[in-house]
Amino acid sequence: MSLFDRSRRGDAVPYAAVAVIALALSGCGSGKYPVHGTVTLEDGTPLTKGLLVFERVDGGPPITARGNVGPDGQFTISTEKPGDGVPPGRYKVLINPMDASDVPDELKTLPFDIKYTKFDTSGLEYTVQSGPNDFEIKLEKQKKRHH
């Protein structure tokens, strides 16, 4: 091993330390942003309970985030722990009404259209961006089903 090889190997440690410090300072830590808002029905009254589920469909690996709807219709979405926020990207959204889970779909009476209970039919899509995200979600009433 030559003197040149030894000096190269010694330089690798400071470069590695600088890289680790740079990554830590660049904000790679959480990469999540606040997501909150209000869910209302067509007539403007707030949805008083439910669970919002966000599923990322674009902007990174699949991620699911969720948050409860409070009695005033307000929600905060979290990924891993309450209030931790959501990584940026485009998300499909569904709403679980949090009741009647043992009732067949065709017999459920919901304050909103049943289409909102599935990602494929809800039509709800939101893009989470860096910084605070405030979403106002307005839901249509249950459609009459003809048999």
Q: What's this entry about, in short?
A:
By secondary structure, this protein is of the alpha+beta class. It is built from two helices and seven strands, in the order αβββββαββ.
What report would you give on this structure?
The protein is an alpha+beta fold and 147 residues long. The protein has two domains: 1-30; 35-139, Immunoglobulin-like (Sandwich). 18% of the residues lie in helices and 31% in strands. The protein contains two helices and seven strands, in the order αβββββαββ. The strands form two sheets. A four-stranded antiparallel β-sheet has the order 3-2-5-6. A hairpin with a 5-residue loop joins β2 and β3. The chain is globular and about 40 Å long.
Please state the second-level CATH architecture of the largest domain.
Answer: Sandwich
Count of structural domains: 2
Give the CATH class of the largest domain.
Mainly Beta
Task: Determine the strand fraction and express it as a percent band.
Answer: 25-35%
Average pLDDT, all residues: 82
- Strand order across the biggest sheet? 3-2-5-6
Alpha-carbon distance between the two ends? 84 Å
Coarse morphology: globular
- Sequence stretches where pLDDT stays below 50 over 5 or more residues: 15-29
Give the proportion of residues in helices. Answer: 10-25%
Major sheet:
4 strands, antiparallel
- Please report the number of helical segments: 2
Task: Using the coordinates shown, work out and report the CATH topology of the largest domain.
Answer: Immunoglobulin-like
| Rg | 23 Å
- The ordered H/E elements are HEEEEEHEE
How many E strands? Answer: 7
